[in-house]
Amino acid sequence: MRIFFLLFAVRLAAQVQGPQLGYAAYKGELRRIEGLSTSSRLSEPLLLSGCSRIDAASSRWALCATESETLLVDLRDLSTRTVSASPFEKALWSPRGEAVVVDRAVKLSNLDAKEITKSSLNGGGTVLAISDKGAIAQRDSESGRILLDGESIQDDGSSVTAAAFDGDALLLAMEARVARVEAGKSAVFVELPIAATALRAGPAGVIYACNSTQLVRVEPSESTAIFDLPAAASRLDILADGSLLIVSPALEEPGWLFRWRDGEGGAFFFIPGFPAVREVVAQ
To answer: C-alpha 79: how far from its chain's center?
Structure first.
């Protein structure tokens, strides 16, 4: 498959200075989140020309939608490969960004291989989560059951409001509790103080769950801490230092990180928003 390089808005000579936490994407712009979780900043745009939409995962891969196709971007050197003959609308990434579901219809895995594994998702169900190994959790459109790689793991999926993988284990949010489902084991349930609409597995067995106003952190011991969100959560991504990206920065609007330190507790820190680009009209 042909490999080429995207044109980008700034020179590659503008390298990362200091720690790099992850990436923030807004429409056709992609920027690094640099610094520390307590004091982060955005780099200049890395990708711009030809991309109308960008969605990045962790610190390795991104999808770029052009007018006519979807490109997989290797963020180490900005090389790209065409993965679809049409521009993507939505992407659902695995926890470490090693696999992705594109527009709920196509699964891409083994992204680092010479030939990417590409497979169509049949059945018309709703994809809830994908693992780094490419396992798919979805709600069947006809029966309503929750399926893991096509096998039923829960008869009534109507109460499932969110899902996420933690390694090979699947986490299912069902109103005010989370079920941990692993092959060959009985499901383990954890009670939550909120009805979760989003889930994320954190480091060392920690579970993050949130709704529109509150974030919950659950330890493996099942002790919980609850926090009021500074803004409505748009996505939960684990960044390079273990902090949690709650809201990705947008034009003139800040993003938010959450950091937990044992003995100190949790706190939110903002990321400055993208500088506004104002159109100059000739008189």
So the answer is: 21
